[in-house]
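Write out this protein's structure.
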Amino acid sequence: MKHFWAIVILALILSCSSDTSNRNPYLPDASFRFELNMNLPLYNDLQYPLNPIYVGNTGVGTRGAFVINTGSGFMAWEASCPNHAPNDCSTMTIDGQNVVCSCEGYTYELTTGLLWSTPDDENRYYGLLPYRATQSGNTVIISN
């Protein structure tokens, strides 16, 4: 009986995995909480669906965040391109309801976070890194 429990415990330990294969290796975890008051002119565009804004305040994400009103809620995404380490050209820019990385020209959709056209090679490509976005009255809180 003693060997039975030893085998069971060993099997449990070996079956636990710390697989981080879904974790984006390029973007570090950034803990933050930031409130956007939609009554202020700077964030007024968030009152209308599909009008994204860039929040570049210090301490918001790695390179800031994009926030969009989808019409049924808010979404927030990291502003640094998810497919390479942050550098001089990795902060993306808004193009309609998309964002574009000036390093490679990758385009991501702000309503889904997906890369538009994935290159046809053996590499793994990541979508935008999401942040929490919740609304409380006229305030949108983005956090990680």
